[in-house]
Amino acid sequence: MSNGQDILLETGTNELEIIEFFVHENVGGERVTHYFGVNVAKVLEVVEAPEGLEGSEAASHPSFLGTIPLRDLILPVVDLSVWLEMERDKEENEPIIVTEFNNAVTGFLVSGVTQIHRINWRDVEPPSKYVANFDTNCITGTVKIKERFALMLDLEQVLSDLDGGSQTGTGEVERSDQRYRALVADDSTSVRALLSQNFENANFEAEVVGDGAEAWKRLEMVKMLAQNEGKSPLEYLDVVVSDIEMPQMDGYTLTRRIKEDPILKVIPVCLFSSLISKGLKHKGEAVKADDQVTKPEFDALTSRVLDLVRNWDAEAAANA
Fold first, then answer.
1. In a 10 Å sphere around its CB, with 0-12 CB exposed, 13-18 middle and 19+ buried, how is residue 255 labelled?
2. What is the pTM of this model?
3. Where does residue 125 rank: exposed (0-12), middle (13-18), buried (19+ CB within 10 A)?
């Protein structure tokens, strides 16, 4: 799904490409079309759904349609309209969007796909009050495309719900003898709450914010304090932990800004995202992230961050 312009997305330009798709809903005999978007980085391909693909009463969730063969894969397929609690207006030749994230390959049946759009994270607005109150709580933002709005869909939330909410964490994390300070950025309310709890259990004082722009404002304050008091920013903050996909400023752009800043570059940065895979890890490396952890490894994250901070402290002491 990538193209020759993909290099722009690797350098922290705050841009992304989304694949726009739609679901036809039958509302009282009338067809209503809902448009959605998902990061192209999560999409492997789009294939045509085979005939006779239907759910089963024995399925673990009503939206699960079973599996289909796809070359060397057995692909689980989810009817996105069922999960969204819509009555899909069915038609022939409907597509399946094949995705890879959270170390899983999954197919999502939709009504159709329009095209790929390049957008800037600054153009992604928080969901309206109505959208944010969907029972599924799966819309992370909205973006205007031509004369319509596409809803940015949180497919991680879909898989988490299908797995019975297993994308959590035990909270049983290694606790540091020393108190550390972390700045944590993630646009998901539930993820922020879990990360805040886990980092507190690991003996971190964690300031948790909702996107990269908020995190950058906090870092600018740290930089100002360090300059005014003639100290290292590490006197105020030990580590930054950031999601990648966030409105206003993504994690790649936040990391690039930190590592290109002559004052803030000494702060270690760990990226925590479902986008981190063997095929995409080079993007974090390109913006000089110091570590990258794949969601949903919540409990492993705090241990990795502790190791990162301790190694950072040891290197600083050795170079002093």
1. buried
2. 0.84
3. middle
Structure-token match 């903050």, residue found: 237
Q: How far apart are CA 287 and CA 305, in angstroms?
A: 18
Q: Which residues contact 282 (CB under 8 A, 6 or more apart)?
A: 10
Query: What is the distance in angstroms between the CA of the first residue and the CA of the last residue of the chain?
Result: 47
Vertex 109 angle, CA 84 and 63, to 5°: 50
Q: How far is 139 from 124, CA to CA, in rounded Å?
A: 11
How do residues 142-165 score in pLDDT, each as one tens digit? Answer: 899 988 999 998 888 788 777 765
Please name which of 55, 12, 84, 2 lies closest in space to residue 242, comparing C-alpha atoms.
Answer: 12
Domains of the chain: 4-162 (2.40.50.180), 180-319 (3.40.50.2300)
Cis amide bond preceding 296, omega within 30: yes
pLDDT confidence band for 8 (50 / 70 / 90): very low
pLDDT for 28-66, tens place per residue? Answer: 889 999 999 999 999 999 999 998 887 777 677 888 998
Whether residue 236 contacts residue 225, with contact meaning beta carbons closer than 8 Å, is answered with yes
